[in-house]
C-alpha cells in the first residue's frame, strides 16, 4: 500500500518539543535520493537534509592572509536519522484510534570525536555551517509522543531518535606561500544536531 503521509519534526528547542508532543504534524517534502544535500537514514524514512555551508572555510590550497595562523578545516560528510525506538499500530476498528508512544528509557547522544572537541573546532563549524551544537542531547523517560489519528484500515509507525551529523576536520596553517597547508592527520566524528520524530501512516 502506498504511503499516505509522512510527518517529521525536528526538536532542537523546548518550544519545538511542546509543539510535537501536542500532536503538531509537519508534512515532509519529497527529496531526490541523488541530491548531495541529503544524508543517509534508515530504510523507509525520509532522507535527512544536510546543513549547507555559508562560507568556504580554510580549505587546504586556498589563499590565506595571516602567515602562521592556525585553523581547522571542517567538512560535513553525512547526516542521518539515528532511530532509538519505534512503535507501530494498526486500526482494525470502525473509528479513529491514536498512534502514540511513551518513552520507556532515557536516551542520550554526545559528541564523539577521534581527538578532543576544542573551542576552535566548534567555532569553525559554527562559522561554516551557521549551526551551534550542544555537547549532549537526550530524550527523557516518560515523554509522550503523539497522539496522531489512525483512520480505519490504516497502519502507522512512529519513530524517535536523533539527527546526527558526521564531520571531518583537518588542522591547517597559513604557510610561506600564503596558502593553507594541512598539519597532522585528519580527524573525524559525529555531533547530535536535533532530537527527531518521524511518523509514517499508510
Largest sheet: 6 strands, antiparallel
Shape: elongated
What does the radius of gyration come to?
21 Å
What is the typical, i.e. mean, pLDDT?
83
> N-to-C terminal Cα separation, in Å?
7 Å
List the total number of helices.
2
Low-confidence blocks of residues: 1-7, 12-38
**Tally of strands:** 12
SSE series: EHEEEEEEHEEEEE
Query: In percent terms, what proportion of residues is strand?
Result: over 45%
Give the helix/strand class.
Answer: mainly beta
Helix content estimate = under 10%
Signal peptide: 1-32
Region (Disordered): 36-65
Organism: Corynebacterium lowii
Keywords: Signal
What does this structure look like?
It comes from Corynebacterium lowii. Keywords: Signal. This is Secreted protein. This protein is mainly beta and 202 residues long. The chain has a domain of 124 residues. Helix content is 9%, strand content 46%. Strands 1, 4, 7, 10, 11 and 12 form a six-stranded antiparallel sheet that branches. It has a two-stranded antiparallel sheet with strand order 2-3. The chain has a two-stranded antiparallel ribbon with strand order 5-9.
What is the secondary structure topology, with strand pairs?
Blueprint: E1 5-11, H1 14-21, E2 38-39, E3 48-49, E4 70-90, E5 97-102, E6 107-110, E7 112-113, H2 119-129, E8 136-139, E9 144-150, E10 155-174, E11 180-182, E12 187-201
Keywords: Signal
Protein name: Secreted protein
Organism: Corynebacterium lowii
What is this entry, summarized?
The protein is built from 2 helices and 12 strands.
Amino acid at each position: 500500500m502506498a504511503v499516505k503521509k509522512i510527518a517529521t519534526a525536528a526538536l532542537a528547542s523546548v518550544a519545538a518539543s511542546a509543539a510535537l508532543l501536542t500532536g503538531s504534524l509537519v508534512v515532509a517534502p519529497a527529496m531526490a535520493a541523488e541530491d548531495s544535500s541529503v544524508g543517509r537514514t534508515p530504510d523507509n524514512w525520509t532522507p535527512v537534509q544536510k546543513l549547507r555551508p555559508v562560507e568556504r572555510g580554510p580549505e587546504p590550497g586556498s589563499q590565506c592572509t595571516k602567515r602562521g595562523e592556525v585553523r581547522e578545516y571542517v567538512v560535513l560528510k553525512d547526516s542521518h536519522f539515528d532511530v532509538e525506538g519505534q512503535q507501530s499500530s494498526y486500526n482494525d476498528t470502525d473509528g479513529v484510534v491514536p498512534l502514540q508512544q511513551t518513552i520507556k528509557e532515557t536516551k542520550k547522544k554526545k559528541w564523539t570525536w577521534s581527538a578532543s572537541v576544542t573551542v576552535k573546532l566548534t567555532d569553525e563549524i559554527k562559522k561554516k555551517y551557521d549551526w551551534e551544537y550542544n555537547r549532549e542531547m537526550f530524550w527523557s523517560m516518560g515523554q509522550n509522543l503523539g497522539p496522531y489519528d489512525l483512520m480505519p484500515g490504516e497502519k502507522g509507525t512512529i519513530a524517535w531518535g536523533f539527527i546526527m551529523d558526521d564531520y571531518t576536520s583537518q588542522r591547517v596553517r597559513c604557510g610561506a606561500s600564503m596558502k593553507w597547508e594541512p598539519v597532522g592527520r585528519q580527524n573525524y566524528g559525529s555531533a547530535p544536531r536535533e532530537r527527531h520524530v518521524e511518523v509514517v501512516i499508510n
